[in-house]
């Protein structure tokens, strides 16, 4: 787990590189995401942080996604889920997405499996004359509660 001060420093640097400022309200949104132990929706964030204004939280989330600091996870649910981007937390992982209740869980796979995925995506990339930067793998189905 990355230290929260290091996280804020890294994000401030990324935003500065894009000519943007790491405002107090952006910082509050990042704190809210960092405190959550799974990807959360905007309503989740607002319930847990009643001092955040909905309109500015929404705008800040969109701007942080745009800046590559926050990742938006699209589910079948009406609300996107958000989390701090992998490259900042250093915790590459995947998602389990429930098609019934829209919940999203993080999961990791063993290192050997990650290597197999990279190998397979490398082959696809060669066939398609693509250069691949990284992969995303989400499993879609029903969670333990909805199964
Ligand atoms: Zn479910
Ligand atoms: Zn995640
Ligand atoms: Zn992976």
UniProtKB/TrEMBL annotation:
Database matches in InterPro entries: FUR, Fur_C, WH-like_DNA-bd_sf, WH_DNA-bd_sf
Alphabetical keyword list: DNA-binding, Repressor, Transcription, Transcription regulation, Zinc
GO cellular component, one term: cytosol
Signal sequence extent: none
GO biological process, one term: negative regulation of DNA-templated transcription
Pfam family, one: FUR
GO molecular function: DNA-binding transcription factor activity; transcription cis-regulatory region binding; zinc ion binding
Family stated for the protein in its record: Belongs to the Fur family.
UniProt xrefs under PANTHER family: ZINC UPTAKE REGULATION PROTEIN
Record's protein name: Unannotated protein
């Amino acid at each position: 787990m990355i230290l929260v001060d290091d996280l804020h420093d890294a994000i401030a640097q990324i935003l500065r590189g894009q000519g943007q400022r790491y405002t107090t309200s952006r910082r509050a949104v990042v704190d809210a995401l960092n405190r959550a132990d799974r990807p959360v929706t905007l309503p989740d964030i607002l319930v847990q942080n009643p001092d955040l204004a909905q309109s500015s939280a929404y705008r800040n989330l969109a701007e942080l996604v745009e800046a590559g600091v926050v990742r938006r996870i699209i589910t079948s649910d009406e609300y996107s889920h958000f989390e701090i981007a992998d490259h900042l937390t250093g915790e590459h992982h995947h998602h389990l997405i429930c098609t019934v209740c829209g919940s999203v869980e993080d999961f990791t796979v063993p290192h050997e499996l990650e290597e197999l995925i990279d190998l397979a995506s490398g082959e696809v990339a060669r066939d398609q004359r693509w250069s691949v930067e990284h992969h995303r793998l989400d499993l879609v189905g029903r969670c333990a509660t909805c199964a």
